[in-house]
């Protein structure tokens, strides 16, 4: 029906590494005009053009790329259908942050500060299911915050996910994304909300994700 809402999952982006030429071998078993073809080997050149993807700007978002928000929260976030979630006060902007960034944002003291935080791109993730790595089916949501509500016992986050990214690939980008920790234990192993003084979009593009 024309007025029915349809649920569309955020697309899963994978890194794209161009090759000069790639071939695919296709084995075909078939019967043509009563002549049995036991095996047919075809070499088919594939195009190096990546599939078309929406860019963040196509969503009408003018990101402030000086910083990004990182949310890691338990195992309950459904990245494919992310709904509002609450971050406890003692895990909201209290750890894994440089001192100057923490001083600037940790109290969310006024509307101007909140509006600035809303302008940053975001990563939304569940904790790694293992010590230092994520399962292959775990995804990180790339998107933004639509609204923040600050209360005495926590902060309610209203998220929007544009893309899903393989979590293990993000988990490995400790230097690129300025993550605290090591490959065996890092920020993706602890529930928290932190802000990083990093151009997230530029780093993801350099990692091979076709965001731009």
Give me the count of strands: 10
Low-confidence stretches: 1-7, 17-34, 39-59
Shape: globular
- Note the gap between the termini: 34 Å
> Which strand-content bin applies to the residues?
25-35%
Radius of gyration: 21 Å
The helix/strand series, from N terminus to C terminus, equals EEEEHHEEEHEEEH
How many domains in all?
A: 1
Please, how many helices? 4
Proportion in helices? 10-25%
Largest sheet: 6 strands, mixed
Order of strands across the main sheet: 4-7-6-5-3-10
Query: Structural class of the secondary elements?
Result: mainly beta
Helix-strand layout with pairing:
Elements: E1 23-32, E2 35-45, E3 68-72, E4 85-88, H1 99-105, H2 111-118, E5 122-125, E6 139-151, E7 154-166, H3 167-171, E8 181-182, E9 185-186, E10 192-196, H4 200-206
Parallel strand pairs: 3-5
Antiparallel strand pairs: 1-2, 3-10, 4-7, 5-6, 6-7, 8-9
Explain what this protein looks like in three dimensions:
By secondary structure, the protein is mainly beta. The protein has one domain. Helices cover 13% and strands 33% of the residues. The chain is built from four helices and ten strands. It has helices at residues 99-105, 111-118, 167-171, 200-206; strands spanning 23-32, 35-45, 68-72, 85-88, 122-125, 139-151, 154-166, 181-182, 185-186, 192-196. Strands 4-7-6-5-3-10 form a six-stranded mixed sheet. Strands 1-2 form a two-stranded antiparallel ribbon. Strands 8-9 form a two-stranded antiparallel sheet. The longest helix is centred in the middle third of the chain and has 8 residues, at 111-118. It starts with 22 loop residues before the first strand and ends in a 6-residue tail after the last helix.
């Amino acid at each position: 029906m024309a007025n029915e809402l349809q649920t569309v999952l955020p697309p899963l982006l994978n890194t794209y590494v161009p090759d000069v030429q790639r071939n695919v071998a296709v084995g075909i078993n078939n019967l043509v005009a009563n002549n049995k073809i036991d095996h047919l080997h075809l070499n088919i050149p594939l195009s190096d053009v990546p599939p078309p993807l929406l860019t963040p700007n196509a969503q009408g978002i003018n990101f402030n790329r000086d910083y990004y928000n990182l949310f890691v929260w338990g195992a309950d976030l459904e990245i494919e259908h992310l709904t509002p979630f609450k971050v406890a006060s003692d895990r909201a902007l209290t750890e894994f942050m440089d001192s100057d960034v923490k001083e600037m944002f940790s109290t969310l003291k006024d509307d101007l500060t909140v509006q600035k935080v809303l302008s940053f791109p975001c990563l939304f993730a569940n904790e790694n299911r293992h010590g230092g790595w994520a399962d292959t089916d775990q995804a990180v949501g790339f998107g933004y915050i639509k609204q923040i509500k600050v209360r005495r016992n926590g902060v309610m986050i209203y998220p929007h996910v544009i893309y899903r990214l393989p979590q293990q690939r993000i988990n490995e980008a400790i230097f690129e994304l300025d993550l605290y920790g090591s490959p065996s234990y890092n920020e993706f192993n602890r529930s928290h909300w932190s802000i990083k003084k990093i151009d997230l979009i530029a780093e993801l593009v350099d990692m091979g994700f076709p965001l731009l």
